[in-house]
Amino acid sequence: MNKIKQIKDCRPSLLEESEILKLRNKFLKKEKKIIEIAGYSKALSDVTRSRIISLLLLFDSLCVCDIANILEISIASSSGHLRKLKDQQLISSKKKGQTVFYELIQDSQFKTFCSKSFNF
What we know:
Elements: H1 17-29, H2 31-44, H3 47-58, E1 62-63, H4 64-71, H5 75-87, E2 91-96, E3 99-104, H6 109-118
Helix pairs in contact: 4-5
């Protein structure tokens, strides 16, 4: 662990150095979770992506055409948003014949997070 640096123009800390080090260590153990939640926030920061996630919570699996029709957006726009969600490994796709269906990754923390957030 690094020694605590005194930050210029900062009032003296109310915490002892040992307390700061202990809290820093505890915080760093949560870093992976913090990054994961930030990724969720990034995915949900776009209203259209949030709507797509909501749809996939309500309907387990939808094709790009159904998503575009329900949200009244173009297929190109729908596809672009689905690609971003898939790149972030938040949704998966399954091809049935010539149609690709999208769904939230089953048993994922993201799905649980969204279910609680959207109250589904």
